[in-house]
Predict the structure.
Amino acid sequence: MIDLATWNLSVPVGTPPTTIDTPRLVKGFKNSYFHADTGTLFFWSPVTGSKTANAIYPRTELRETYANGSLRNWTYPEADNLLHATLTVNQVPSSGKIVIGQIHAYNSTKPLVKVEYQYKTSTGAGNIVAKVRMRPDDEHSRIITLAQNVPMDRDFSYLIHLSPGGVLGLSAAGAQWDAQLSATWRDKPLYFKAGVYVQDNTGYTSEGGKVTFSKLDIDHNKT
């Protein structure tokens, strides 16, 4: 069973989109966009869903919190920070792209890292791509292809690891990448996100991103 006691949930309904707070999530919240009935987490986001402020695409996505529901933000020197997930991609929009995990920066439109599944019609499989800002003020992300030819409807895992020394480690489907971030990230409040954030906003209501997580775990290990 995946522990939901350190997350809230955004679903692409209403203006602004609805946030399900941590206590309600833990009590077994479910709708057509999210459920945890089977011990796994099911996420669905249609391309026609409503969008959060400053976003151009819809999402059904978890955001890190404390157990009482208040938002959790951390700076990387405080601990060894890890997000580990195992999931299956069940559907992608016509762009082929969905974000499945992030380290976001609080009160910023520029996340530190996004992990994307990018489906290629030509191969019938997807690549796992990371988009990383080495500095908080970088306009453009560094793009790293972590793994290639990952089929839909098959489990794979990814890990986002940010050490107290500012080393970012990313692994997915057995591949690994590491880099030292700029120290200008040190005092920036950060938080993990996971789910399905579709990189598309046009099409029928049946078009969108669908994923199923069988493992999702956050750790902030004090050093």
Notes: The chain has one domain: 7-221. The two ends are 27 Å apart (CA to CA). The domain at 7-221 is CATH 2.60.120.200 (Jelly Rolls).
